Each structure stands twice: as structure tokens, then as C-alpha cells.
Amino acid sequence: MIHLNPVREVVDVSLHIYRTGLVSGIGGNVSARMGDRVFITPTMVPLGEVSLRNVVLVDLNGRVIRGGRPSSELGLHLEVYRARPDVGGIVHTHSPHARAFSIAGVQIEKMEGFMGLGRGYIPMVPYHPPGSRELAAECGRVMVDEDAAILENHGVVCAGEGLRDALLLAEFIEESARTQFIAETLKSMKK
Ligand code: 13P
Q1: Active-site residue flag, 174
Q2: Nearest-angstrom CA–CA distance, 161 and 88
Q3: Residue 1's pLDDT is what?
Q4: Smallest Cα–Cα separation from 127: which of 113, 140, 138, 114?
């Protein structure tokens, strides 16, 4: 996908993620790639406060070309871009239901729709501290052939051809986790 205005897209998707509760506080980060340039949200800034003025431009080696300090998960975004030349946008969220699954260590089913034909589970990346090289490397490995990963004890990462695709996938995963939780609760109530 061609980003007509990647900075605008990073801003719009960040605000949407914040307003719809897929993150709170300073959680989450968003990026878009255009050629060998990556536009990413700044670190320690709530996604609800991302604007055209504070999106950071970096190269694929993580060198800052324009702006302040990039997200502490820049390495993770870059590893996924390196592993997936087809990916143009990435979101990292702390979606409440999916995050609860990641903390409980319960896998989220791939439901019909975006995630295929209801077979298998979204892969879970074993816990490494947020922002660590290990987390970034493991995520790059897992997402070579997966568009989404659950980060154990942490949250969700989704990639797409465009940033909008990554966002829609993150929304679908949160809905899947919520639905799975309700369905499993109801099953346990069956007489
Ligand atoms: P940043 O503010 O550095 O992007 O960190 C937020 C986050 O969710 C880390 O995993």
C-alpha cells in the first residue's frame, strides 16, 4: 500500500486507538513505513496526544532523521519491517481483553474472519521486558509468517500491508478475546 501521508495516518490511528480504549496512559505505539523510512510515535507520550508535530522519522537502522525520541519499541517495529517486506504499518496495543489473556497465559483462538478459518491460535511471544532487544528479536521471528502476536504479560502487536489493516486486525483480536472469554464463561455455566 502507498501511504499518501504516513504522518497523518500515524496520528489518526494513534488517536483512534487511544479513544477506543485499546491503550491507556502512555501505553502502545504506532508506525508506518514508506520505502526505507519509518514514521513512529514518540516515547512516553500518550497516543491521545500524538500530533503532526511529534511523530518521529527514523531510517531502517533506527537513526533519527527528524523529531525527538522514538518509541522504546522502535527495535520491535524495525525487526518486523525487516522480516516482512510486505508490511507497511504496525500497531502495538494493550487491548484490555487480549492483555488479560496474555497475563493469564491463555491462548486466543484465530476466529473466522480476519484470522483465517477458525483454526489454531495467535502465537504468543514468551515474556521479555518491554523495549528489550530480546523482545524485538523474538517478535521479528514469530511474525515472519504471522500478522499478529500476543506478547506474554504485556499486549498485542499487529502488522498489515497498510496501517489501517494493522489497526483493523488489532480491533478484531480484541473482539475475539472478548468473545472467547464470554463463550468460555457461558460454557462453564451449562447444566
Ligand atoms: P513507548 O511510549 O516508548 O512507545 O512505550 C509504550 C509501550 O507500550 C511499551 O511497550
Answers
A1: no
A2: 5
A3: 47
A4: 138
C-alpha dist (Å) from residue 122 to 72, 151, 155, 171: 24, 10, 12, 14
d(CA 135, CA 117): 28
Query: Pick from 176, 161, 8: which is nearest to 95 by CA?
Result: 176
Contact (CB, 8 A) for 28 and 93: yes
What pLDDT was estimated at residue 3?
A: 57
Q: Residue 77 Cα, ligand 1 centroid: separation in angstroms?
A: 11
**32 sits in which H/E element:** strand 29-34
Mean pLDDT for each consecutive 10-residue tract of the chain (191 residues)? 80 98 98 97 98 98 98 98 98 98 97 78 98 98 97 98 97 97 96 82
- Helical residues (DSSP H) of 84-144, grouped into ranges: 96-104, 133-142
Residue of 109, 5, 117, 106 whose CA lies nearest to 55: 5
Domains present along the chain, CATH in parentheses? 6-190 (3.40.225.10)
**C-alpha to C-alpha distance for 32 and 160, rounded to whole angstroms:** 10
Residue 70 near ligand 1, beta carbon < 6 Å: no
8 Å CB contact between 31 and 13? no
Neighbours of 172 (CB within 10 A): 17
pLDDT at 38: 98
Tell whether ligand 1 has an atom less than 6 A from the beta carbon of residue 44: yes
